[in-house]
Amino acid sequence: MKTKIAGIETDYVGTASGCHDTTDEQCHELASACNFFTLKSCTLEPRIGNVEPRYAMLPIGTIQSMGLPDRGLVATLDTLESIKEKYGDKVKVKASIAGFSLKENIELLMAAFQDSQADFIEINVSCPNTDKSIIGHDFNSLDEFLWRVVDTVEGDIPVGLKLPFYGSLISHERLVAIIKRHDVSFITAINSIPGLWIDTWNESAVIAPNNGTGGIGGSYIMPFALNECRNYYNLLKGTDISLIGCGGISSGVDAYRFLLAGCDAVEVGSYLEQHGPSVITEINNDLSFQCKTRCYDSIDQIKGKLKTL
Ligand code: DHB
Question: How far apart are CA 296 and CA 299, in angstroms?
């Protein structure tokens, strides 16, 4: 099913940042398999990230505290350029940026990507795994941040935010009130939710960084993601800000849930990480099947049509 994010046409199902996009080769695999994918959150300099083990599979999801390991800006721009050279406009690429200081890195990253061939730029205001605070949680700083980074840096590429889980309508209202004041074209909800898993055999956490706390992804977080998206859909009515859903999607039925909740598009994360890029076409096809068996042939006939009891 085709959709539009910030006015740009893409497939409904694409990929989340940080899943199967660590190396140049993996990014090229994504480009050959998907019509819309997201690059790993880019830092200015290359980074090693947190100590291992920093990723573990759980019964119905994953826990990770990678700590933003990254190839850095120069290598990421090279990858983006080579993908665009090969696939042109057939593939829509969302760059993701995660600078460490407002004044320098993020402005440099934003300026660099605004000058690139990226189709979208997503600012990760929700990474849970570094020693920096999560700017998405600090609404006063976020307002200033958006003015400095989104409104001030010149360029025509639509900019959006990857949001943390908030868990309350009042926070969603505050967030939407803030983004409406700035040049934000889309939001992606949600990032992984901080959590802990315990291996009782070893009486231990399962990842090393941060005393075992990491971002939980996969099926665990889908109901939370759906609730956030439904709230954002209602609050964003009458604006042209697009809503991208993310959190535990592994089938066309899951994508259909996010469509009913009001999402303009969805992204697959943990499931892609476990099964590789071919799942994106499968989920896109499965979603088309879900829509066609209900006699819908466009996204708009279903988007936000969730019934309540
Ligand atoms: C990492 C985790 C995230 O949830 C994210 O959005 C970006 C980076 C990480 O640990 O590397």
Answer: 8
Write down the pTM of the prediction.
Answer: 0.98
Using CA atoms, how far apart are residues 125 and 133, in angstroms rounded to an integer? 9
**Measured in angstroms, how far is the CA atom of residue 49 from the centroid of ligand 1?**
10
Cα 23 to ligand 1 centre (Å): 16
Answer whether 215 contacts ligand 1 (Cβ < 6 A).
Answer: yes
Q: Tell me, in angstroms, the distance from the centre of ligand 1 to residue 134's CA.
A: 11
What is d(CA 228, CA 82) in angstroms, rounded to the nearest whole number?
Answer: 36
Contact 40, 21 (CB under 8 A): yes
Ligand 1 neighbourhood includes 192 CB (under 6 angstroms): yes
Q: Cα separation of 108 and 153, whole Å?
A: 9
> CA-CA distance, 77 to 81, in Å (whole number)?
6
Reduced to 3 states, what is the DSSP secondary structure of residue 171?
helix
- Could you give the CA distance from residue 199 to residue 153 in angstroms, rounded to a whole number? 46
For residue range 130-170, what is the model confidence (pLDDT) as tens digits? 878 899 999 999 999 999 999 999 999 999 999 999 999 99
